[in-house]
């Protein structure tokens, strides 16, 4: 064994150890991307949505079944409050503010009397609040000016338009029948 072999072995070991330690400080793009991955979170929808249009359709004197046809089944129909139905609605979506609405419907002698509750959005307002800011992108203009139409017509009628007549010298393609001939 030569005197340089132990020194060489220690130097290689030190070099290997320092390179492994250096790898811990390198900003790996794959590791960076994996830190950004988040688990899927489901939308939480509870209750039934009641819109401003539905409430406007309610009229005093309606029966319970008529109210149920308009608003849907109440979330809470308590035995202790037989003359009251409670409707509650919450929704939580990623990227939007959670929405929560409460409304109570009151009956007298089994007919609709009044309602109380939060300010309810219309169906279009509710749908607008459901979209996240990323989904609210500007729709491109789908209308051409008269100058753009004239330019398009000129291009179409120019020499670049494909011929509609088949080339008589081109060989005709023949395809086999889809079904065999019945005998």
Task: Explain what you see.
The protein has helices at residues 4-25, 29-36, 52-56, 64-71, 123-130, 146-157, and strands at residues 44-47, 84-92, 99-108, 111-117. The protein is flat and about 105 Å long. The chain has six helices and four strands, in the order H-H-E-H-H-E-E-E-H-H. The chain has a domain at 44-132: Beta-lactamase Inhibitory Protein, Chain:B, domain 1 (2-Layer Sandwich). The chain has 183 residues and is α+β, with helices and mostly antiparallel strands.
How is the topology of this model organized?
Blueprint: H1 4-25, H2 29-36, E1 44-47, H3 52-56, H4 64-71, E2 84-92, E3 99-108, E4 111-117, H5 123-130, H6 146-157
Antiparallel strand pairs: 1-2, 2-3, 3-4
In short:
With 183 residues, the protein is an alpha+beta fold.
Shape: flat
Number of strands: 4
Helix content: 25-40%
Taking all Cα atoms into account, the compactness measure Rg is: 36 Å
Order of adjacent strands in the largest pleated sheet: 1-2-3-4
Features:
183 residues, alpha+beta, Beta-lactamase Inhibitory Protein, Chain:B, domain 1, 4-stranded antiparallel beta sheet, 34% helix, flat
